[in-house]
């Protein structure tokens, strides 16, 4: 699990479930999380968006991709 936002500036909104948390690292955009849940409304102070950590499922994701090829 990863949490982001909650600073009142940028955060998830109601209806964002399943959307990505993208970060620019190592010269490329990478998906670090998938929205699991967050506050109702948008950009609420002290109420961050909760993401499922993609790296925890990396092996499973790669196995599904390999099966599809």
What's this model, at a glance?
This protein has one helix and four strands, in the order E-E-E-E-H. By secondary structure, it is α+β, with helices and mostly antiparallel strands.
Beta-strand segment tally: 4
Helix count from the secondary structure assignment: 1
Beta-strand percent range: 25-35%
Bulk shape: elongated
What is the CATH third-level topology name? Thrombin, subunit H
User: What's the name of the CATH homologous superfamily?
Assistant: Trypsin-like serine proteases
SSE blueprint and pairings:
Layout: E1 2-4, E2 20-25, E3 28-37, E4 49-53, H1 58-68
Antiparallel strand pairs: 1-4, 2-3, 3-4
Key descriptive features of the protein:
69 residues; alpha+beta; Thrombin, subunit H; 16% helix
Structure notes:
Helices cover 16% and strands 35% of the residues. It has 69 residues and is α+β, with helices and mostly antiparallel strands. It has one domain (2-68): Trypsin-like serine proteases (Thrombin, subunit H, Beta Barrel), CATH 2.40.10.10. The model has no long low-confidence stretch (mean pLDDT 89). One of its GO terms (molecular function) is serine-type endopeptidase activity. It comes from Champsocephalus gunnari.
